[in-house]
Amino acid sequence: MVFRLVLGCGTVCRQVIEQLAERGGRLLVITDDESVVETLRDESVPARSADPTDPDAIANVDPPDVIFVASDRTDVNQAALEVARERFPAASIAAYLGGNATAADRGKFEALADHVVDPATAMADRVLEGTASPSAETAIELGQYLTGIDGRLAVVAHDNPDPDAIASAVALVDIANAVGVDADACYFGDISHQENRAMVNLLDLDLRNLHRDDSLEEYAAFALVDHSRPGVNDQLPTNLHVDVVIDHHPPRGPVPGEFVDLRQQAGATSTVLTEYLERFGLDIDPVTATALLYGIRVDTNDFSREVSPADFRAASVLWPRVDASILAQIEQPSLEGETLETIARAIKNRVQRDSVAVASVGRIGNRDALPQAADQLLAMEGIETTLVFGFAREMVFLSARSRAGAVDLGETLRDAFNRIGSAGGHADMAGAQLEIGILGSADDEEEVESIVSVVEEVITNRFFEALETRPGVPVGAYTQTSEWLFTQRGDREDGESA
Predict the structure, then answer these.
(1) Same domain for 73 and 188?
(2) pLDDT at residue 129 tops 80
């Protein structure tokens, strides 16, 4: 629970005190204005009448997480700031500069406070941002929660993790270790994309590959990164007690967890973890920094897709610590022959209507070739939206890309395929997976090819129909006569497979 201490309560303080109280946690205001104390108490805000510049006034106060020095006078605030910093060296302090500050005053404030609020340039909303932003509060809460874990922590990325999930898991392990908690970065499935493998190998990342039948009893707690629900795009039990969730995707259902940070405005979960590392004051290891920067670059398509100011800021924090030579090697691995063949089949087999191209690449051994093929189709002249899909065992995997502003691929794929499988993702990149329940019972290759042909037609038609009729679930003869081919698998979310 976050404890905020307010020393002095002038005009700016009164503008924000109500919102501070509504944020929850503990709050205490100490001011020598008795009328303000009475008013605050009438409003059920804890307040104490005392001189905020007197060390005795805070001698018996519990150590606060955040301090706001907030009288109207510069000299009073400076004195209170000096007392607060000496008494609570670990607290995050925001100090209001006051209305008659000199350049010398500003220098003294900046030397002692974490945030200085200048009345000439900041209003009440800036005070809230400096003292009680979600990132500051959640960092405090995360630290408190992690230190309470008695045992080993499993930090689980989504299935077949992408760079953002891998880097986020590694970073959260670093944070857990820093507060004295042993942790493992874990994942289910495979890391088959050549760039992802290069990232893991070149950085020598310590990851544990879990299997569905592995015992989880050695772990006392579980954290999910880059996805938010157990059993949804991971192979954890759906009823698993989740302790920590950190993600940037919009949730598709209730999100369990004792500590949850869903930062949908961030372009990557790696951005959120970078912020936590910075808030914890940790010296970011070059390996972790390189992984995080690569995770941000991949998820934002090198800062061109769903990027936010926070992503640029995180990159600026990471760049001085990045191993540039390793990063270059990660970004330029050689393409495998199978991936090149998949791309070639996508180009050859594409069905194009206006600026939309759909392609089946048939049987695949590496599902990570699909997003690369979708990207290659998108690079072709006149194409703004692509869908590429392939067959592996009794599953069909789909990957979609778009640069058309009017298209939301995540919603489009959910409209088209959630009734017969599972789908999700972002507006400009998304994925789906469908289980073909009848494929395994086919007697011969000719029958298999016949089924595959029908499935290809269903997928193609559903995708075009969903693009034309969103919002709403598509209907038509082909959806009603062919759904028996599929066995619904549950509400999975899109992850690296997109």
Answers:
(1) no
(2) no
Sign of CA dihedral 188, 302, 247, 244: positive
Q: Phi/psi class of residue 152: alpha, beta or left (left: φ > 0; alpha: ψ in -120 to 50)?
A: beta
246-283 burial, b at 16+ Cβ within 10 Å, e below that, comes to bbbbebbeeebbebbbbbeebbbbbbbbbbbbbbbebe
Q: Is the dihedral of CA 26, 251, 491, 397 positive or negative?
A: negative
Residue 195 CA from chain centroid, whole number: 21
CATH of the domain at 433: 3.10.310.30
Contact 351, 358 (CB under 8 A): yes
Q: Maximum Cα–Cα distance for the chain, whole Å? A: 89
Supply the range of the domain harboring residue 40.
Answer: 3-132
Return the pLDDT at 494: 43
In this structure, the dihedral spanned by the alpha carbons of residues 455, 457, 462 and 468, taken in order and rounded to 10 degrees, is 170
Angle at 397 between CA 392 and CA 402, to 5 degrees: 150
- Please tell me the distance from the alpha carbon of residue 272 to that of residue 139, in angstroms, as a whole number: 10
Per-residue model confidence (pLDDT) at position 151: 96
Q: How many domains does the chain have?
A: 3
Do 356 and 291 lie in one domain? The reply is no
183, 320 in Cβ contact below 8 A? no
CATH number at residue 111: 3.40.50.720
